Amino acid sequence: MALLIIPMTCFGSTLATSQPCQTPDDFVAATSPGHIMIGGLFAIHEKMLSSEDYPRRPEIQKCVGFEISIFLQTLAMIHSIEMINNSPLLSGVKLGYEIYDTCTEVTVAMAATLRFLSKLNCSREVVEFKCDYSSYMPRVKAVIGAGYSEITMAVSRMLNLQLMPQVSFESTAEILSDKIRFPSFLRTVPSDFYQTKAMAHLIQKSGWNWIGIIATDDDYGRLALNTFAVQTAANNVCIAFKEVLPAFLSDDTIEVRINETLEKIIAEAQLLDVLKNVTFTDEGNSFHFDAHGDMNTGYDVVLWKEIDGHMTITKMAQYDLRNNVFIITDQETKNEFRNLKQIQSKCSTECSPGQMKKTTRSQHICCYECVNCPENHYSNQTDMDHCLLCNNETHWAPVRSTRCFEKEVEYLNWNDSLAILLLALSLLGIMFVLAIGIIFTRNLDTPIVKSSGGLLVCYVILLCHFLNFASTGFFIGEPQDFTCKTRQTLFGVSFTLCISCILMKSLKILLAFSFDPKLQNFLKGLYKPIPIIFTCTGIQVVICTIWLIFAAPAVEENVSLPRVIILECEEGSVLAFGTMLGYIAILAFICFIFAFKGRKLPEHYNEAKFTTFGMLIYFIAWVIFIPVYATTFGKYLPAVEIIVILISNYGILCCTFFPKCYVILCKQETNTKSAFLKMIYSYSSHAASSLAISHVSLDSTNSNITTTDPSSSGRSAAWQESKDLQARAFAHICRENATRVSKILPRKRISSI
């Protein structure tokens, strides 16, 4: 029963649309009540008639041109809704529909959309203006349609106000995929993007590259035209022309244009049919037009040749157009063809691979010069217009190259002669460290070892030297992230610990032999060996830790050189690297000051002057290192730092331990407790005498200033009195200094120093 009612309802609605619209209900094509209403927009009629009134009245005109295919689509929507209502899919809920005929006109579709948006169950059909439509109840809940993309865009912009769902079955414009402008729009057909993409691909597969485009003058046509033009350009297809026609073929203008075009084509076609079938003969040869409109004739190849002052013309061959070959009649003619190849008739010789053409001032493109490809450029074909650029980061090419060559990766290799030499020096230094350790261990109880701070301090210093020599191995070989982080950290911490220990030794010696009470009290308060060593070394550890956390050294490929890639360690932070070296320099400078103060201590046991010399070697080496390191470039850059490390390490090692080893091995008579005490006593007596003499000289000067010149008769008595006074003063000062020396240099200090 429902199937019978539907056609009648729609047929009645169709008849109603043939008359001018009187009420809003006359505008509805088909409707059925329900709990949930679904709107529909279908172009059941082809167009809307123009108003003949002037001025034009603001009313909806009648529609003409019934479209049976769209009418069937409308019936399909109604049938689908009725099937859902008759099924248990929505129990207790009935779907209704309200379908409008857009007449293929945006204005009509907009009027229907306004009715969709009107408030539900309102006596007056009105669309309320609100800032928030979240609680607004419109007349329908969703819209099906429209068909044309231009109509769909206009409707969708209005439905976006309430985010009412819109599902189109035919609109394919690419812009509708933009969910920022059309957030509530959906469709069951692909976008024009894929349609135009498929068309462009079909044209490319067909081998066409010269085409024309005809599009309709609406949003659908214009957008598709632009998209198709972009995609064809990407496939190297050229567009001969673009023609935009009115959107509706029923328009009077387009009908006139089509009729005029058809008449012209028919008139020309009659003449073409006659010409295509023309066939005639000449000297036994038949001639006609082929499918391309070309005559099936050929050419005679003739040779102009001067013989004895007379010009002769000889037929050499005949050119066959169909087979694209020359037909030669005899052997003599064949020889003439071979002679033609020996004649050079070119403006410029062809450029060989490795060269490129350089256009001259001539207006002819066939005239050019051949120039060699510059460095890092190549050409692999003849007569190339320009040379191709190699990838400068990974490849290179010499001048006039036909290909690119891969850059060689370079670093300070283990097999390099300089690396082998530096490794040999490092191993020699390690052997010296081990030998010194053995010598000091075997002579543990001798005064020379005890005066060096004991075996523990010597072992710590020797371990630091060992680590410094070992750190040079991390500068050689293929750089890795681990080696880049380890080499600077290992050198910085170990060298800082070495300088800190030497600093404490210098401070201890200066404290032991200082006779100035004020200086001695200051040095006593300052002398805290273990805390100072840990503090000095800990500061360097903190510097290196911060460096590794925030800007750790890493492997870097240096591609700035033209033919090689330098694999090197990038220090990460120049500031951190400079801070580490600068901190070591500060400690070395303090150590140098203390050592310089004690340079006049006992001869055989005086480390101060050798420490001073060692620090000078260190300063000279690193002062030279800074400009050399800043200006050196390439794979030998790590070798510069290795050399400086070896120089400074050898300098301090030799100045610290070699004199002691010399005394232990070659002057054993001075390496005894008695010889040690004798030398200390001699040095102390000499220091006390010097101090007494300085006081006597001062008193003598003061007494000379206060006395007056006596008469010649009393000069002898006064001189004798002054001499006795000086003798008593000298004895008193000597006693005081002896007491002071005994306090400053107690026996237990002398024996333990």
Give a brief description.
The chain is an alpha/beta fold.
Notable traits:
alpha/beta, single chain, disordered C terminus, three-stranded antiparallel β-sheet, disordered N terminus, 20 helices, flat, 753 residues, six-stranded mixed β-sheet
Q: Assign an overall shape.
A: flat
Number of strands: 24
Structural class: alpha/beta
Treating each run of at least 4 consecutive H or I residues as one helix, how many helices? 20
Helix content, binned percent: 40-55%
Q: Strand portion, in percent?
A: 15-25%
Using only C-alpha atoms, the radius of gyration works out to 54 Å
Q: Pick out the low-confidence regions.
A: 1-19, 267-276, 691-753
Question: Alpha-carbon distance between the termini?
Answer: 125 Å
> Largest sheet, described in full?
6 strands, mixed
Q: Provide mean pLDDT, rounded.
A: 75
> What is the topology, as strand order, of the major beta sheet?
1-5-2-6-7-8
What would your notes on this structure say?
The protein has 753 residues and is an alpha/beta fold. The strands form 9 sheets. A 6-stranded mixed sheet has the order 1-5-2-6-7-8, sandwiched between helices. The N and C termini lie far apart (125 Å). Residues 1-19, 267-276 and 691-753 have low confidence and may be disordered.
